[in-house]
Request: fold
Amino acid sequence: ALEAGFDYPGRTPTTFRYAIFSQQRTGSNWLCARLTNLHAFGVPHEYLNPLLAPFLGPRLGASERPLETDLEDYLRRVEAVRTAESGRFGIKIQPDPLLPLMRHDLKAARRVLGRYDAVIVLHRRDKLAQAISGTIAEATSIWRNDGREPEVSEAQMRLMVGRTARYLGKYASEEAKMVTVLQGLGRPRLNIAFEQIVAEPEASLRKAVAFLGGGDAAQPMPEEARMGTPERPPGRVAAELRARFLRFLENGDVAAAPPAR
Reply:
């Protein structure tokens, strides 16, 4: 989504800014892709990601390290080419990298979110499933699911049990900080759970569209497949890792749980 093909050439003035504030593995890639394909909501993406900004910044005339040198100038440049003809601009903001960028100052992080007129907050009720998903993504380097079951060796599976515990702690800590950042923000907010997206994807999308001022969300919305949407894998590896992790909590043996069949 960093390519020039996703830019809007008309340079429409930005009249409405929104942020998707989410952790990893909560459905943000899916929501960003669907909103992008509707054309009226810009191209919400991880513009604050330090791994991506050095590629986008120079293309827009900013420095090679735009997040460190002049964040406001960089964001203005991004808005200039990623604001839809409707005047809407969207961005996806995750606590990591937002908090490190703000030196873990939660008030500073709140000020960044306060730049936006509305905030969609994505979360996941099943924290263990979220941690397992993050662990698998890290182990396989597949952060955007394509519907296929990842290939994981027995050696990887054993290592992933401990990493799941690390991700569980990471996501729990991040969510607590997200709650603090959102307190006193003073912006309209919509909460959507990952489980809602899975159970009722179209209803979840309509809810987001209505919240962002997209008109009558009950009516069909024209959608063009500019960006592919992620597809969940069957879940065999996730089920096996969950079984092993729970068995590990009981007896401390990472190999105790047999592979799922």
User: Anything to note?
Assistant: Residues 118 and 187 are 6 Å apart (CA to CA). The two ends are 38 Å apart (CA to CA). The first strand starts at residue 16 and ends at 22. The chain has a mean pLDDT of 93.
